[in-house]
Amino acid sequence: MKDFTKWTELSTKGETNLWPIFLCCVAGLLIVGTVCFLLMDALEGVFEFVFGVLLAGAFLVAMLGLAVAGQEESSTEAEDKSSDTAIFTVQVEKEFGVRNLSCPPDVMSTKDELPDAGTYRCAVSDGRDDSALKDVTLIVTADNKVGLYDNQGKEMK
Length: 157
What we know:
Elements: E1 2-3, H1 5-13, H2 19-39, H3 45-80, H4 88-96, H5 105-108, E2 118-126, E3 132-140, E4 145-150
Helix pairs in contact: 1-3, 2-3
């Protein structure tokens, strides 16, 4: 049995969290509003309005840029995991050194998480030309362990 805990953790890190962007925009609006309110007495007429709009725009763009840069920096770890290995069956093929893993639909439809714990009848290609199929058993446990066994019960490595 191989431990897939790290793989499942990496697959969830790629999710985008928009809260930092939202909070930066709210903070930017509050700061710009406060600065404009404090400068109202010093500036008059049209110049006051233009200055406020330019200051608000510049500050919001800067805050949004910082938030987006923070999001990109935190997602680089998730990007280290290639898009192919984000798919469960591809990761099983890689870990156990098999090709063309074919399982029931509830396993095949799983992309970036483990399928439900259980035992699944699957098939892999056997031979150099991938023409012969070999029956295997895929076991997934509740504690993120995955095993692949041939039809005689020997673990595949």
